[in-house]
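Why do we bother with holo predictions? Because pocket geometry can differ from the apo form. Keep that in mind while you read this record for magnesium ion.
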Amino acid sequence: MTSTKLEPCIPLDMEKEKLTDLVEKAKDYALMHGICMRRKDQFDRDALHFAPFVLFPTSFPRNEFDKSVKLQQVLNELMHKVAHDDEFLTTSLRNTIKVDHFTKRLFDIYERVKKEGGPTQALSLGMLRSDLMLDNHCCTDYGCKKAGKSYCCWKQVELNTIASGFGWLGPASGLLHRYVVQEAGYPQHLKNIPENNALAGLAGALISAWRLYNQPKSVILFLVEDVTYNVCDQKFHEFEIRRQCPEVFVIRRTLTEIGNRGKLTADKRLIIDGQEVAVIYMRCGYHPDQYPTELEWDARYMMEISLAIKSPSIHYHLAGTKKVQQELAKEGILEKFLGDKAHTDSVRDIFTGLYSLDNDTTGDKNLENAMNNPEKYVLKPQREGGGNNVYGEDIKPFLENIKNSDERCAYILMDRISPPIIKNYMVRPGMEPMLADCISELGIFGYVIGTKDEILENKQVGHMLRTKLSHVNEGGVAAGLGALDSVYLVDTDRCC
Ligand code: ADP
Ligand code: MG
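The structure, written out:
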């Protein structure tokens, strides 16, 4: 992989003493401002350590950043329409649900709700995060004419419709970096770290939904894991709700607790521990392990059929699957949903090649291409939360195993994006800071509230940046492989 003229925003060859001092200051800032997580190695309910971060903000082309921010409302509208298109969801997932048990269970809830007369609550709240990476494949693959510039385009990795995290840690990383660049003696850099109001925007979305539900005594329920490691990110949403709206209370419950203690009234209001639930914000429920028994599935169904406004409703959850992402990239589909040519072109521009592995001639051809050039692809199952994809040389034996069975319909293939590499110091708890080659992934947050026929609110609200070592396939921060980062805007052009 060659790269890039995107340079670090601060020279990295600083004296050891100065670096150590800066790192200590940054760690203290993180610890004392809730830029933290629970420890996975030695669990202690009462202790946090700082979340991994890179020391300096990462250079990112200003025009691409502006474009991704502007595009978010179009993506919000697209996903809202996709989520409400029964025929598209059903056709897209038809083969997948024959072999992917988890997606089938979600789909069964969707069907059951439909059979019972459709959702009790017509409103949905989509809290979305579109993940993007810059790509420089033209420089590497096709001998770009202006090679040596920076990047050729930017591409969507995925669009999250459930548990889109980092609404706090995203903006908080910008605050940390504002402090660090000043301590490093570069106050002139502040103007290039953009404002980031993701937390206020996402908390505002939950409050808007609560107001639409219109029951003064009702609460907002955060659906949470048994143990929440990314706890600051969630709790700061609660604090922000409290700051913006003194009237509403947030409660936190697990699927198991809802299964055991949740009830529906005759008019399908969801009651837990004597409190009526207006809005459900799911930070859990996207992975099979989170449904250990039928009780948790019953809880998911009960929430779905209830009058509470869900983020996400089951149809929004299904619209965020990798299979739907791949079907959306097929010719003519974006046009169908968006109509407007400028909008369609701008979304198409960020799609990479996405390929079906269904048992047909197209699927066979795609499978063969992946077997012949595995380094060019990422193989993805219908899962969220990181650590599920197959990369590079692992793709061949994996496909060899499933190529003659229907199991292959559970996967999609995607062109591998090759982002520019920028050096930075990675700072992790209990480890020396490490100067490393890094690549980054930008997430843009948006939310949309509406019914099948009408969108009431559609906003872009902020962003987050995650950075990982360039040779690592996946960089989940909570998984310990990635690091928090923020955007440093620079004026640079595409190479071609
Ligand atoms: P998940 O839903 O588990 O987060 P993603 O599709 O976001 O799945 O993939 C997880 C990670 O894998 C991404 O954050 C990114 O680092 C890497 N990744 C995913 N797709 C690609 C791709 N097409 N090219 C390069 N890296 C990718
Ligand atoms: Mg992801």
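The chain has two domains: 16-352+417-490, 353-416.
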